[in-house]
Every structure is written in C-alpha cells, then in structure tokens.
Design a protein that fits this description.
Blueprint lengths: L13 H31 L19 H39 L8 H5 L10 H13 L7 H23 L2 H10 L1 H53 L1
C-alpha cells in the first residue's frame, strides 16, 4: 500500500460519479416505465386481431398501446446505452486510481473492463471482481460494501430471468410475452431497477473511498515536507 501517493496522480472522479449516478437514476426510471407498460399490456390482453407477429413474416398494425410500448422500449434502450457508457467511464477512472493507490497492477487487464460484460461465462463474475479489486485498493482492510453484492446479484437475476432474452427478441416478441406470461418480464424489470439503485450506492461508496484516500494523502505529503525542512534547520 502506498500511503504517500501524490494526490495529483489520481484522476478526478467526482464528475464522472455524478454522471454515472444520474444515468443510473434515468435507467431505473426507464425500466420502471417499461414494467408499467408490461402490466398494461397484460391487463389489456391479446387483441381480437391476435399477436403482433402473426407468423410467416406477417405483422398486423400495432394497437395504440403497442405503439406506445415501442416508444417506451426504444427510449429505454437509449437510456440503457447512455448508462452503460457513463458507468464504464467512471469504472475506468476509479480503476486507474486504484492502481495508483495500491502501486500494484489490477488482477484483470484493462480490456476486461469492457469485455467482461459481454464474454459468455466470464460475464458472470468478472465485472464484480473488477469492482471488488477497486474497493480493496481504495479502502484496504475495509469490508466490501454490501451494495456490491446486492448490485451484482440483482443484475444477474435480471439477466437470467429475462433481460438477456428481451434483447435477443424483437419488441413484438416481447409484447407477446407480456400478453401471455408477464410474470417473468416483471421479475426481470424489478431486478434491473433494484440493480440500478444498488449501483448508485456502489458508485458513491467507491468514489468516497478514493476521495478520502486523496484527502489523507494531501495532508500527509505536505506535513512530511514541513517536518523534513524543520529537521534540517534543527540539525
């Protein structure tokens, strides 16, 4: 551990953290809106004209409710992409700071900051491992915040219960799922909203830990210099 790391060597993370938190709030709201439309679709039931995708490449015109869901879904996808970008920017910065604070290379090389989310199997633990490593370097000796496990557990629950399937299906197929079996979609929606809330606490916890280390270093380095100068005069 390098207790005397120069504060100037740490990348600023406050603005990146604020952007990530704001994007997470928007993402949580977007998935909440998506869940509301899933409930509305389930309550309305399958129209007399049948499902939107009627097979053999034939699609009927959407109802007003289905058309609105297409808009909600598209906006939610855009917000999710924005959230992913801002979160990864923040994650990259706190990872760099963690390396400066510990003086040790991270367990995962930098490509895993991005590839860890999309490589099958590895995406079940790599992102959490990166966050846990950052915490250990930023707050050595302190227990991993519970929010990290809540965030990752809820994210995996959302992926395994339907989020991943939703992104491989067309919007019309998701609408059909809402009509026929909305429960799984609502579980996924609730898990993703919960993961977004927990991620806000993760961002705040790691950011505050690094800022505290930076503040401590700012006090240690100048005081050491003053003591050294005084010792020279006294000698």
């Amino acid at each position: 551990m390098n207790d005397r790391i120069a504060p100037s060597s740490l990348r600023p993370v406050r603005t990146a953290a604020r952007c990530a938190v704001a994007a997470l709030v928007l993402a949580g709201a977007a998935w909440g809106a998506r869940a509301l439309w899933h409930v509305r679709l389930a309550a309305a039931g399958v129209p007399a004209s049948g499902l939107p995708d009627q097979g053999d490449g034939r699609h009927r015109p959407p109802t007003a409710l289905e058309d609105a869901y297409h808009v909600v879904s598209a906006l939610g996808d855009m917000v999710t992409v924005l959230c992913a970008i801002t979160f990864l920017i923040w994650l990259s910065r706190v990872r760099d700071n963690a390396r400066a604070l510990s003086g040790q290379p991270p367990r995962y090389a930098w490509p895993w900051v991005y590839a860890g989310w999309i490589v099958p199997i590895a995406n079940l633990w790599v992102p959490r491992g990166i966050v846990a490593d950052i915490h250990r370097a930023s707050a050595p000796g302190e227990r991993l915040p519970r929010s990290v496990n809540w965030w990752w557990g809820l994210w995996l629950a959302g992926m395994l219960s339907g989020v991943g399937l939703m992104y491989t299906n067309s919007t019309d197929q998701v609408i059909a799922r809402a009509y026929e079996n909305v429960q799984l979609l609502l579980v996924a929606d609730a898990a993703v909203v919960g993961a977004a809330v927990a991620a806000i606490f993760v961002v705040r916890s790691l950011t505050e830990a690094q800022q505290q280390r930076g503040n401590d270093a700012a006090l240690v380095v100048p005081s050491s210099g003053v003591q050294g100068a005084a010792g020279g005069r006294l000698g």
